[in-house]
Amino acid sequence: MEFTLITLLNGLCYGLLLFMLSSGLTLIFSMMGVLNFAHTSFYMLGAYFAYAISTWIGYWPALFIAPVLVGVIGALVEKYGLRTVHKHGHIPELLFTFGLSYVLVEVVQLVWGRSAVRYEVPPELDGPLFTLYTTTFPAYRGFMMFIALLMLLAIYLLLTRTRIGLVIQAALTHPQTVEALGHNVPRVFMLVFGGGCALAGLAGVIGGNAFVTEPGMAATVGSIIFVVVVVGGMGSLAGALLASLLIGIGQTYAVALDYSLASLLAGLGASVGPETPGYSVLSLTIAQTAPILPYLLLVLILIFRPRGLMGTREN
Predict the structure, then answer these.
(1) Which residues fall within 8 angstroms of residue 178, CB to CB, at 6 or more apart?
(2) What is the pTM of this model?
(3) Do 229 and 91 belong together in one domain?
(4) Which among 40, 156, 189, 309 is most buried, taking Cβ atoms within 10 Å?
(5) Rounded to an integer, what distance in angstroms lies between the CA atom of residue 86 and that of residue 98?
(6) CB 218 within 8 A of CB 229
């Protein structure tokens, strides 16, 4: 029971962090049709900005300032970069964001170096939140989950209870009508792109010190975020949340399970040893195969449900 509950909490924490990252990418795609390959680079920027700001004035100001800075950079990228190449189609947009991801990594390496920086958890949260049986659950992981749920609530209220949210939803399906009513649709696109980047920056602020802040952090989570978006359904926030939790919990449990087909066969009384044909495959544990499980899920989704778990458009 202890293992089950603690692993579940850790999986929820990881899944909610994945949702924080994928929500911004999902908003940008659903609104603008742009699959932003540089999205996780903004996550990296959020972590590095928070590290720099926290060394000057502390972690709590960095929690608010860093995402805003990342959002401003994202808005400028949309206005002076993506907007210019948008008229040439989706391929130039993809190439632009793909190149931008490399540029941002190189800039980070020039400013902060190639090695990891010491971006630490704030002292107020550096301790146990509670003890379950004999295992303590870190307070900072609880804080990460709280921020992710707060962000989910804020996005829901923004899109369904505010005027700007209604304009955003209307511009998604009827941009000409929204523009005819006097709204500046390009500015709405800029705000959405900047807001999506700010969400990625927020994920970097709270995830950078829980894991490792280094130039390769964008590439580490880059592929998994696209898996989340495709599995959940392109453009579906609810699907992104469901896929994030499914992948986060599933992968966390898989990492903790040290079982293999060889041990299963041995438990059933079969004689399995190094001389057994295919022993190298039979001896692979679930923990060893955990990194490929999300991609296996992606393949299955694309075969049996190409539009994703909750998607509304065909991929």
Answers:
(1) 167, 170, 171, 185, 188
(2) 0.88
(3) yes
(4) 40
(5) 14
(6) no
